[in-house]
Amino acid sequence: MIAESLISNPEFMAQYNVTNVVTYGSPVDNYSADPSVRQLNIQHANDAVPLIDLEGAYAAPRPTFPFIITPVANLGEIAANLNIGSGNTTTATLPPPGDPFDIGGAHDGSNYQSSVQQQLQDPASQISQWSSGPSLAPFLTSDPSAVTQYTSQVHREN
């Protein structure tokens, strides 16, 4: 979500040359991301977290009891033609890892890692196809002197 927020910020994008973003298990459909950035949003079919944003729709409660959340078209996103339909966003919905009713396991990072590793074994998978794009070539190299790695600690302050 942080990556999507950053590539949705014109000031950030004016300062940094972001070419690719990968998310997993994140509700990122409501961000108006820069259409020049190639995005891969990975989710398990049974992970509820990516659906929190109602897949790009705003939610409005009905004035009845009990309150029911009803999806309403996200017209601003559609009109801007940014994230939705930009052609630079690929959403890979992967099969449930293990028990399809294990919602917690579906959002587990190690299960996402295993699922992606499995997908990369199939050259025809969405993830393999996305990872072979030319914009990743400068980063996926066997020459360690060609790239620089930065690790930053991101966390919530409680």
Backbone shape: globular
Number of helices: 6
Mean pLDDT figure: 78
Order of helices and strands: HHEEEEHEHHH
The biggest beta sheet reads: 3 strands, parallel
Count of extended strands: 5
Radius of gyration: 17 Å
Strand order of the largest sheet: 1-2-5
Unreliable spans: 57-86
Q: Could you tell me the strand content as a percent range?
A: 15-25%
What is the first-to-last residue Cα distance? 18 Å
- Helix and strand content put the structural class at alpha/beta
Helix content: 25-40%
Protein described:
This protein has six helices and five strands; from the N terminus they run H-H-E-E-E-E-H-E-H-H-H. Residues 57-86 have low confidence and may be disordered. Strand 3 and strand 4 form a beta hairpin. By secondary structure, it is of the alpha/beta class. The protein is 25% helix and 16% strand. The protein is globular and about 45 Å long. It has helices at residues 2-7, 10-15, 75-80, 103-106, 109-120, 126-131, and strands at 20-24, 38-44, 58-61, 69-72, 89-94. A three-stranded parallel β-sheet has the order 1-2-5.
Give a topology summary:
Elements: H1 2-7, H2 10-15, E1 20-24, E2 38-44, E3 58-61, E4 69-72, H3 75-80, E5 89-94, H4 103-106, H5 109-120, H6 126-131
Parallel strand pairs: 1-2, 2-5
Antiparallel strand pairs: 3-4
